[in-house]
Each structure stands twice: as structure tokens, then as C-alpha cells.
Write a structure and sequence with these properties.
By secondary structure, the protein is mostly helical. Helix content is 71%, strand content 0%. It has 33 helices and no strands. The chain is elongated. The protein starts with a helix and ends in a 10-residue tail after the last helix.
Length: 579
Amino acid sequence: MPAPRVLWNTVMKAYANAGDLPGADMESASVVPNGKTYGKLMEAAAKAGDPDSAERWFEHSTQTLGCGANRTWYGLLMDACAKAGDPQRAAHWLAEARRAELAPNLMYYTTLVDSCAKAADLMGLQRWLKEMLKDKFMPNARTLTAIIDGHAKAGDVAGAEQWHRRAGAATDEPLDIIAYTACLDAAARVGDADVAQSWLQKLQEAGLSPNEIAFNAVMDANLRSGDLPGATDWFYRMVALQLTPSVVSYNLLISGNAGAGRTEKAAKLFTKMVTARVPPDIISCNALMHGCAKARKPAEAQKWFSEMKSLSLSPDEITYTSLIESCTRSGDVAGADDWLRAMVEAQLTPDEVAYTSVLTGFARASDVAEAQRVLCDIRSAQLEPDLVAYTALASACARAGDPEGIQKVFRDIYAAALQPNLLTWTAAIAACARARPPRPREAERAFQSMLRQSLEPDEVALRRLEEAVGPQRAAVLCRGLRLPADVVKSTRRAAEKIGWDHCEPSTRGLICPRYEIYHASGSCSGTLIGVGQGCERSRWCEICGHCVVWMFDFLVLPGGAWFRLLAACHLSFTVGLQD
């Protein structure tokens, strides 16, 4: 005897309450559906955040039963859209409800506010809040929690905190843990560990027990602020409170350690997670592979790829991009190219990052032809090469001493409505220096074009310029250049701190035993930096200062090495500089 329909509907209700849409779908095949059957199927779809299935069952119900939808069904459709973070789709179903002469109620408005919150759409959130108040509905605790969550997801810590205070005063209902974890999440998104910890304390003061979500937010805030030990400490505090770390908890620490180059520690955490019977996910494996890529360990990255496959996890674009990067960073450009092909064969779409990583590898190997081939592949994939890709190709042309190749790259850059950066111009100058014979006039034009673009040459650019045009001509071309204002100000503050008279004549520099070496070698920045670094190693700080004075006397600009030198010596000079 077949089971009565009411029994099947009860079973589907259980699936719906659990948000188990596949289970509800399966059981629906065993019964002739009625209105309650379709309602439970839509409820399961709503809790699963699957608006497509909810709409499909809604259409089935109207066609099969031949009756109009009720208020609850429209609410379920909006709820499905809200959980999927699709406020426009949720608004569409409100409009449909109005056409069915069903006036919005508090539940409808709260669901619409929630849909905007999940999409971090603060303007939409404010719009529906105004509509709610206009229809004389007062926000309840759920509405206010959704508003707090919306500000949190938008990274608006102040807004989340403000609405939390307003919520406490606006409703007699106590705010639940979700309202507090939303503020924790807001602080985590901006990496403010102190604020996150203060909200955890407020949560406890409100008589609530923190869950693993709250601890995860504090861990995330610590990691974003660069405090890996702090995040680790909060992990073990969570364990001490008898809370079970989730896959998110483990992934946070795995990502933090892997990103910091501590790949062995990250691997131990992965093993610990498996031992604790917390199933790893693709994020766990991708984090480990990304760490191996940064550490230039392609073999280990490939080991984790195999581990992922053994766990029946499907690699995604991030997986293959990490494998490509691991090969590129270790100099195995052929391996990187193979992984790019494997990615395409797996029916995944490489993005600009994956292609550019391979292109950069060929550029570092001075393989202009292969770098150009990858650039063509980017275009064939309907992607637009970015400035990083063009600059990598320019660097390959520079290593090959190919000014014509550089000129073509520049034409492509301008055609793509991009502007060359300092690295691109430096490559152009280097190509002229390495051409046979060298092309000093073209190098000068490239340098002057760079200055017209308001780009400040660094130490590398100046060295390439000297190689192309010679030290004396480079000094003339650099005449009148100014250092960045922030560097000038910081070095002046350092000078004032030690009371050094930067106007003192530079002739005292003659006491430096390296002066004769410098004077005999000519006034080039490379020699001068060598003199200064020698003084630094000898701890002759004052002599380092006089080396800087010589630098300005000879019209040579300091680069990054000089700024580090000055920071070490706590000296600064303003010879020839004006604010």
C-alpha cells in the first residue's frame, strides 16, 4: 500500500528544514504533489540559496495546480534570491507580488534588506529601509542585523558599529550573535585586530558565547594586519574553549603560514586538520600550492596537486595558476607553459595572470619569440594584455638589445590606451644601451619622454642611462631633477633630529680614504654607491654623509640603495634640493 501523501510531505519538510534541495527533489518523485508539496520544495530551494530551483518549482505549481501563488511562496522566492545575494531578482519578485495584489509586509522588506546586505549594496539597503518606514513598518532585530551585516560586508566598520548601537536602542529584542559577528567581520575585512578583539569582548559581555565564526573573524583580522602569531594564539584559545575549529579556521592558518613562506608549518596544519576529521577543501590545497609557488618549490606544489586529486577535489583556475607561478619563479618556463596547456585541456579558462606569468618566464629567459607567442595567445583568448604583460615583453627585447622590438611594444601599449611605467621606459633605455652598436640618442629620447610623463628615475634607470650615453652626458640629463617630496621631508627631519649642519662645505669629504678611488673612477652613480656602502660597512656615518654631498656636487641622483644607507646612518642632506 503506498504511503499517504501527508507522510511524503512530512519527509520533504524535513529535507526543506535542512536546506537539502536534492533530497527534497528525490522524494517529490514518489508522490502526486499538492500545494504543500510545492511549498516545501520552494522552501528547500530558498534555504539552499538556489533561486533557479525555487522559480522552477513555482512555475510547476502554477501550471499543475492552476491556482495563484500565496504570500508565503513569494516570500520564499525573495528569500532564495536574498541568500544568493541577488537584490535585483528579489526586487522583481516583490513587484510580482504587488501585481498579484499582495501588499508587502515586514518579512518581505526584511528579506529585501538582507539581499542587499549579502551583496554589500548599501544604497539598495537604504532604499528598502526607507520603503519599509514609509509603509509604517518598524525594523525588527533581524532587519537591523541585516543592516549591520551589509555595512560589515562593505568594509564600513564605523557604519556597522553605528547601526549596532542604534539597534540596541531601537528594539526590545536582544541582538543575537550574528549582529556581533557582523561587526567582527567588518573589523576583519580592514585588518583591524584591536577592534575585532573589542567586539569579541562585547559579545561576551552581552552574555553570548562566542562561536568558531567569531574566533575566525578575529584570526582573519590578525592575519590581515600581518600578525601570524596573534592569529595562531586565537586559534588555540578557540580550542581551549572546547570549540571545534572548522575548515575555515584551519584554512586561515594554512594560508597565513604558506603566504609567510612557512610551507612546512602549513603542511603540518593540513595533516592536523585531516587527523581531526575536518575534510580539507580546495581552498586548503590552493593555499599550500600558492605558498610553494612563492617559495619556489614546484615539486612540492605538484605534490599538493596530487593530494588534491586523491581527495576527489576538482582543481580550479587558482590551482593551475599557482602551479604555473611555481614553475615560473623557479626558472622552469617550459614547465609553466605545460601547466598552462593542461589548464586549457581541463576546460578551465586561464586569466591574464596565468598567461602573464608564463610570458614573464619567457622574458626572463630572453626568449622574445615565445614571449610574443604567449602575448598572441592572450589576445586569441579574447583577453586584453595588461601593462605587466607588455612590460615583460619589453624586458625580453631589452635583454636581446632589440630597440625595434621595444618600439613595437610601445605602439601596442598606446593602442591599448595604456601608459608606459618606469619599468617599461627603463627597458627601452636598456635596449638602446645593449644594441650593437649602442643608440645613445634613442636612449636620451626615451629618458626625456619618461620625465615628461612625470616619472621619477630610480637607481636602475639611471644606471641604464649611464650605460647608454656615458656618465658625463647622464649627469647633464639629470640636472635639475628633484627627489620625491616625502623623501626630502623625512630626511630633513632626520637631519634636524641629530642637529647636523647640512650646509657645511663638502671639502671635509677629502678625509675619506676612498675619495681617491672615487675621483679616479669618474663621477658615476655606481662608483659613488660603492664608496658609500664601503663607508657604511666601516660605520663611518659622517663620511657616508659627505659621499652624499659629493653625489649632488657631481649631479648624480641617489637611488634606493642611498635611501637605505641614509636610514642606517640617521643622516640627511638637502644640498641642491628645494620643496
